[in-house]
Amino acid sequence: MEATAQQILKDYYGYDTFRTGQADVIEYVMQHHNTLAIMPTGGGKSICYQVPALLNQGTALIISPLISLMKDQVDALTAMNIPAAYVNSTLEAAEMEWTMQQAEHGAFTFLYVAPERLENPRFLQTIRHLSISLVAFDEAHCISQWGHDFRPSYRSAVSILDKLPERPPVMALTATATPQVADDIKRLLQIDEDHTVRTGFARENLRFQVVKGADKERYIFDFIQKRKHETGIIYAPTRKLVDRLFQFLNRQGVKTAKYHAGMSEADRQAAQSSFIQDEVSVMVATNAFGMGIDKSNVRYVLHYALPMNMEAYYQEAGRAGRDGEPSDCVLLFSGQDVHLLKFLIENSASDTQAEYQKLQQMMNYCHTQSCLQTYMLNYFKDPHIPEDCGRCSNCLNEFEKTDMTKEAQMVLSCVKRMNERFGAVLVAKVLKGSKDKRIKQFGLETLSTYGIMKNRTEKDITQFIHYLSAEMILAPTDDKYPVLTLTDEAVRILKGEKKVMMQIVKATDTAEADYDETLFEELRQLRKELALAEGLPPYVIFSDAALKELCRFVPHSEQEMLEIKGIGERRMEQYGEQFLQVLVQYEQSQTVPVQTKKPLLQEKQDTPSHLISYEAFERGSSLDDIAKDRDLTPLTVSNHLFKAYADGKALDLEQFFSEEQETAVLDVLKQHDELPRLREIKEQMDVPCDYHAIRAVLVHNGILE
Ligand code: ADP
Hints:
single chain; about 700 residues; alpha/beta; Rossmann fold; Arc Repressor Mutant, subunit A; six-stranded parallel sheet; 32 helices; about 10% strand; binds adenosine-5'-diphosphate; isomerase; DNA damage; EC 5.6.2.4; ATP-binding
C-alpha cells in the first residue's frame, strides 16, 4: 500500500513525502480502522482522507459543517480531474437533483455533504445503494458538546453510520481537540486510542510577534508596504474600527476589502470573493470573517487589538500560512484594548469568571518574555512541545531596550498631579503644554508638569502612555472614558526604585526574495486569469509555494516542471503548458542567460537537508563535492554545516579560517553599529577571505547562529 499511496501523492499533488502523521492515518484507514487525526491547521488533513479514497473503490462521503470549504475542496479535486461534488443548501433544486442522480450511479469519488443533509430521506436512500469507500467527519470537534463549536445536527449525523448496509472505515479530522473533546469524538465514532494520530499544535511556518506601544495605523501601513505582493488579513475588534481602517488603507492606495456583520450579505460575499480571487490583497475584518475560508496563501494576519482569548487568537492567526510557507502573525497590543473586552464579557451570557481568566491568560501572552509558541502550546496542553521556536519576537529578541525611566516619571507625576482623574488624551495635552480650552477650564496649565514634554508630539506622548498601560504601570479604569490611575509599580518608578526599559521593535529589513519577483508576478497574473475563467480560487491551480519554486528553478520542459514540489501530473496536464510558455518567454527576454538549475530532488523528510550535508561532510566529502552532488551552491552547504553546529553537532569551525582572517573580520565589524552584509565585510577586509570563512568567524564568535 505504501508505494501506491506514495504514487498518488506524487501524481495528484506533486509531493514526494508525507508530512508527519499523514502516512499513519492513511495506513490505519486502509486497514479498515476507524481513525482520528488531530493535526494543526495547514497540517495536511485533506490528503489524509483523499489518498485512501483514491486508493479504494467507491465514493467517499465527507461530512463538513463548513459550506464554503466544500466548494473549495470540490474545486481543487476537479482541477485534478477527480470527480467530486457537494450537496448543501446553496444548490438549486435542479442542481441538487442532478447531483443526486449522478451520485446514485457512483459517479463521484468524493461527495461532500453538510450534516443536516443526512437527515434527508432522499439522500439516505441514495447513499444506501452506494459503495462507500470511507466516511470522513471533517472539523470533527463540532460533534462534541465540549467543543467550542458544538453543532447538534453534526452529532445526529453520527447515526447515519448505523443506517448503512456495510460499515465503511470512519475518519474524524480536527485541528482543535482538547483531551475531553477527543474522548468524546472517539466514543461517538468508535475510534480506539491506537488509531488516534496527534501531531501537536505547533505551526512551524508561523512567526508570532507581539508589538506594544506602536502607532497602530502607521505600523500596519508600513508592514503592508513591505509586503506589497502578499496577501493578509487584519482583524479589528469593532465594525467601526474596520470601517476606519478600510478607509485609511484605501486612501493610502492599498487595495483593501472589508468584512463585518453590519454589511449586507451581498457586500460581504463580494468582499470575500475579491480577496479569495487575489483581486485585493488586504482584508480588514472583524472576527466574523474567516470561518470556512480556506485561502491557503495568506502571508500575514495582523491583530489590531487584543482578542478575547487564546483560542480565538490561535484560530484567527492560524489562518496565515496554510500552505506551509513562512508567514507572520502580529498582535498589536495596547492597554486600552482590555476595556472593550471587559465590557463584552460583562455583557455576555457566558461564565464571566472563566472568561476573565481567559482574558488574563491572553494578556499574559502579551507580557511573557519567553517563546510565544511555547506559551501557546502550554496553554493548549499540547503533549508535544518542541524546543523554543527560534522565530517569534521573543526568541529573536527583536527589541531594542531603551531606558525611558525619566520620561515615565514625567508622565506618572503628571497623572498624580492631575489627581488620577483624567484620561490619556488630556494627560498628553498637559505634558505637551497644549492650549486646549479644557486645560484652562480645569486650571491644568498651572501644574508643574505642564509643558515638560513639549519637544514631543502629542501623539507620541499618548502612544507612550498606552505603552505604560500595556506594561501595567498605569491602570486605566473600566469606564466608558477611562481615567488613568497609578499602580504600585508606578509608585516604585516615581521613587526611583525601578527602571522602565521600553522595548522598541528594531527596524528589520524584510528578507530579500531568493527568486525573481517580476516573474512571480507574471505567473500569479496567469494563475489569476485561469482561475477567473474557470471560477476557481487561484491557489487551487498552483500554490504560491509552487510558483516561487518555478521562479527559482525556471524549468524548460514538462518533465522538469514535474520535478517541482507541488506540481503533480494532473494539474500539469491541465495548466502546465501555459505556465511553461511564460517561463520560456521570460527566459528569452533576459539579457543574461538564466541560471536554471535542475530542481533538487525532494529529499526524504526524515533527515533535514542541513543534516544530510553535515553527514556527508563528516564522511569526508568537501564542500564543493557536496554542493555538486546535491545541486546546491557551496555557500548553502557551508550554511548547512553551521546550522548543524547550531543544532549542537560537533564541527571544528576553525578549519574554515585563519587567525589573521578572524582578526580582520572582527576589525571590520568594529567600524559598524549594525552587522553589515557579508559582501561589505569582504570588501572592507584587508586580507583575502571567502564567504565561508567570514560566516564561520561570525558563528565562532557567537555573532551569527
Ligand atoms: P488542513 O486541512 O490540515 O488545514 P490542508 O489539507 O488544507 O490542511 O493542507 C494545507 C497545505 O499543505 C495544502 O496547500 C497542501 O497541499 C499542503 N500539503 C499537504 N500535505 C503535504 C505534503 N505531504 N507535502 C507538502 N505539502 C503538503
